[in-house]
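Changelog note: in this version the structure field was regenerated for every chain. One regenerated record is shown below for reference.
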Amino acid sequence: MQASQVFEQLNLAQGQACSIHLATNPDLVGVGDLEAAQAGQLSYLEGVGAYARFMHTTEAAALILPLKQPELQEQATQRGLAWIAVPYPRLAFAQAIALFYQPFRPEPQIHPTAVIDPSVSLGQGVSIGANVVIQADCVVGDRVCIHPNVVVYPGVSLGEGTVLHSHCTIQERSQIGKKCVIHSGSVVGGEGFGFVPIPEGWFKMEQAGRVVLGDGVEVGCNSTIDRPAVGETRIGANTKLDNMVHIGHGCTIGKNGAIAAQTGMAGGVTVGDRVIIAGQVGISNRAKVGDGVTISSKAGIHSNVKPGSVVSGYPAIPHKVWLRAALLYERLPEMYKVFRQIRAQERHAQNSALDSDHPKGLN
């Protein structure tokens, strides 16, 4: 595909005028990182920063550049590179990747080893791989793709265009929206952690609720989303979960969020829209996180977080306060040394005062 064709499609995708320079019109065969790009590849640069130095050495044939950084555009022109300048280079690069690569998707067919209950409703153009099991009363929408060795429990609904990767499990009554992606090893709708203490130990509370995923939700590998004893565990449209994320029973997560790996939520947590949660965050039972919150990695959330907050630390505090505290933490040995010196001076002053109040007798 020639650079001019790629640039034309990217220009249309941006929704506003872009700047294009074609000193040459190279054939593009793929995409690559600016530092490691090879001849015939398209790369990108977001701004004047650490990566800008690779502008002088990259072997990329064409670049996506920031619209409001003419100095970078001039450097690319001097090197004889084709380029397009756009408002959001990283977004344009993501769109460019889709022009050269599409994830594997088998042709619509049902593998002869798949076990499908006669009561299942199958849409048009579905692909069901080897050793898939779909149990009674499920609804599989149009163009759903189920890769090998997936198990779907009774009463599940899969929205059109959804993809289930190998070895994931969708347990009973779960409702999966349109164009969702569930990656390998994940369990959606498993039993919540519900046990009532009794003198003999524990009485198991059956988990009769369900999990509901909105349209466009993605669940990374080996993540778990538990169903509650009653009601729903719900994840809003277009929210993305990384690998190894645990969503406890009865949680409600809003739209357009992002939750990074090894984050765990206890039961009944409420998370608003557009929340970003970094890796290894822990959120305690029934905590409420407001819209637009950002939580730094390894933070511990033990109470409610106000909308728009940025929090860090364990227990979590406002990020700016945490930065100041972290700076002081690094200086604790030095501060302790000064503290000991001050204490020694105080003791010396006290001893001197005692000596002056009680002078020694004359010989």
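Spot check on this record: DSSP finds five helices and 38 strands in the chain. The two ends are 108 Å apart (CA to CA).
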